[in-house]
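Could you help me review a protein record that somebody else here produced? Here is the record exactly as it was handed to me:
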Amino acid sequence: SANVGWLFISTTTGIYLIYEFMHFCCHVDESWFVRNMPLVNTIRRHHTAHHNSRLMMEKNMNLTFPISDWLFGTSDLDRGLLGHLFNGYDESYLKGNLRGQPRRPDIAAAEPIAFES
């Protein structure tokens, strides 16, 4: 029916807009808003850690909401679900067996990205 089509279009568009907004927040300049807004600050730290060349193929692969990384054990954090979603820039819960050290978004933005050769 037409309702199923509209539901599909609305859902797909909504998911895409959420993804784009969160990805935009990951790459926008550091500010009070992105540093203090719950979920946005968590996603920024999560995404910055994902762009670390030593971690990107193993950790933090889900961008919009890091629930899948928590569920499948691919997160760089050792926390429960709520602690994981509202972690912000806190680095005290990083797993000890990481191949690289993730950097906070405000620190990573000030330094060039180093790639392994």
Residues 22 and 64 are 6 Å apart (CA to CA).
